[in-house]
Amino acid sequence: MSHHPKISIIKNLTTSSSSDIVFIGIYKDKTLTPSGKNLSTDIRSGFDSGIKSGDVKGKTGELNFFYVDGRKYALVGLGSKSKINAEKIRIASGSAIRSAISKKAKTITLDCFCSEIDSCQPMGEGIALGGYEYNDLKTMDDKSFSISEIEVVNANEDQLNDGIVIGQAVCFARDLGNRPGNVATPTHLANAAKDISEAGNIDIKVFDRDEFTEMGMGGLAGVAQGTDEPPKFIILEYNNGGEKKPKVLVGKGLTFDSGGISIKPAAKMDQMKYDMCGSAVVLGVFHALSKLKPEINVVGIIPSTENLSGSRAVKPGDVLTAYNGKTIEVLNTDAEGRLILADGLSYASKHYDPEYILDFATLTGAIVVTLGHIATGIMGNDDKLMEEVKNSSKKTGEKVWELPLWPEYCKQIKSDVADIKNMGSAGQAGSIAAGAFLKEFVEKNIPWVHFDIAGTAWGAKPSSINPKGSATGVAIRLVLDMLGK
After folding, report:
1. CA 60 to CA 57: how far, in whole Å?
2. Is 461 one of the catalytic residues?
3. Residues contacting residue 229 through CB under 8 Å, at least 6 positions apart
4. pTM of the model
5. 11 Cβ partners below 8 Å, 6+ apart?
6. Residues 238 and 313 grouped into a single domain
7. Is the pLDDT of residue 140 over 80?
8. What tens digit of pLDDT does each residue of 253-295 get?
9. What is the DSSP string of 225-286?
C-alpha cells in the first residue's frame, strides 16, 4: 500500500528543517534547479567533486549522495532540461521517495522538480507512487518502512495535493489487483465500492446472482454458473455535474480465471488473480473522484465473478442471451471476460444516455503478443473520442496503441447457430476479435473505446513509480486526465 506522510510546503531550501535527507534536482548539463542554485556556496561546493568526476550524470531518476557539514544531501537526476516532461518528474520524485525508504529516512526535504513545466501534479503522483509496496500478507521478516514527513520546496500546493490523490488512487487499485483470489472476491470488490461511495457521497447499487439473472444478464450469469462464490453486478454513480451527460466506465471484475471447462495450463495460472484489474481501474478512478470532486457525472459498472469449472459451469457449444437480447455461442469458456462485459456494456447503453463509454479489461493474451507489457491496445467506434484517449496517453505517459475494427474483422465473430460467437477466426487477430465482439453491445450512437490492459495491468518493467511483481493501476491517470483532473 501507499503510506500517507504529512506533507508541507516550504519557501526555499534554506528554510528546511533538520530533515534526514535533502533531495535537490540536477539536469544533464550539471545545472541545479532554481532552489538548488540558491543554496550556500559551501553546500554547492560540496557537490563539485562528484560533478567534476563525472559520477553525477543527471540522468532521469539517478541519485548521488553527499555529506556536507554533517547533513545528507542527494542530487536527483532530471535529464535534459530542454526535454523535461511530466513523466520524468514522476520518475525523479519516485526515485527520491524509494531511496529515502531504503535508507529509512523518517523526514525528507524535496526540491521542487517542476520549475520547467506548468504543473506540480506529476510530482505529487510520483511521491505517492514511489512510496508504494505491497506487504499486507507478510507476517515474517516484514521490512516495510514509511516516511513520516515530507517538505516540498515552493510547490503549488493544490496541484501537488491533486497529484498525491491521483497517485493514492492508483495505489488503491494496485492493492486490489495484488490481493489473491481468495481475498479479492466479487464481494470484496463490492465492499470496496461501498467504502468509496460512503466516503465520497456516491450512489451505489449491487445486484446479486438471482437479481441480475432475472434481469436477463445471461453473459454474467453463464460465466458465474461454475462457482459458488457469490457474483456481483456493481454500479457506482458520481453525480456532481448537473445536467451534463455521464461518462460511463465499465470494468471487467473477473476475480479468478481458471479458464472454466476450457481450462488454462497450470503454469502461471496464479497470475489470474490479476484478471479483475479492469474493475480496479474503475474503482481507482472513483477513489480519486470521491476526493477531487470535479463537476462532472460519471458512472462505473463492474460485472464480477470467478470463472471455474464446476459441475454447472458453462460448456463449449452453449448459447447464452446477453442483456440486450443478442444470443452468444460460447466456443471457448476461457473467452469469458467479453461475456460479462457484454452485459455491462448493454446495461450502460440501455439505462444511461452517456457522453461516451470506456471499458477496461485484461481481455486477451494476444495483446501481450502484439504489444508486450509496454502499451495498452485500444479499439473503438469514434475518431474524436479515440483522439482524446491518445492525447491523455501522451500527457500521462501511459502508452496506448489503436487497433482497427474493420468490417472484415467484425464479420469473423458471426455465428452459424446464434447471433455471434465469442471467438473470431482461429489463430487470427484475437484481440481485435474480442473488440469486435464488445462492439455488438454498444449502441451505435454512443462513442466507445475498449482498453485491453492484459499486457499493462501487471508485468511492466519495474521503475521508481512501478514496483516489481505488482499490479500497475494502469489507465487510472489517463482516464482522470480525460475527465479533466
Report:
1. 9
2. no
3. 185, 186, 187, 255, 305, 306
4. 0.96
5. 153, 154
6. yes
7. no
8. 999 999 999 999 999 999 999 999 999 999 999 999 999 999 9
9. TT--SPPEEEEEEEE-STTPPPEEEEE-EEEEE--TTSPPPSTTGGGGGGGGHHHHHHHHHH
What's the CATH number where 424 sits?
3.40.630.10
Instruction: Please count the structural domains in the chain.
Output: 2
Which of 81, 264, 395, 399 does the annotation list as catalytic?
264
Checking if the pLDDT of 350 tops 70, the result is yes
Residue with cell 461501498: 194
In a domain, 164, yes or no: no
- Which pLDDT score is estimated for 200? 87
With a cut of 90, say whether residue 17 has pLDDT above it: no
Burial class (CB in 10 A: 0-12, 13-18, 19+), 428: exposed
103 and 247, same domain (yes or no): no
pLDDT, one tens digit per residue, over 42-65 is 888 999 888 988 899 999 999 999
Of 105, 155, 104, 162, give the one whose Cα is nearest residue 128. 162
Residue 146 in any domain: the answer is no
* Together in a domain, 197 and 110: no
Question: Coil, strand or helix: which one is 16?
Answer: coil
Could you give the residue ranges of the DSSP H alpha helices within 272-336?
Answer: 277-292
**What confidence tens digit (pLDDT) does each residue in 358-416 have?**
999 999 999 999 999 999 999 999 999 999 999 999 999 999 999 999 999 999 999 99
What's the pLDDT band for 142 if we cut at 50, 70, 90?
low
DSSP state of 470: S
Catalytic residue among 179, 232, 273, 338: 338
Residue span of the structural domain in which 44 resides: 6-131
Q: Give yes or no: 414 in active site.
A: no
d(CA 336, CA 197): 28
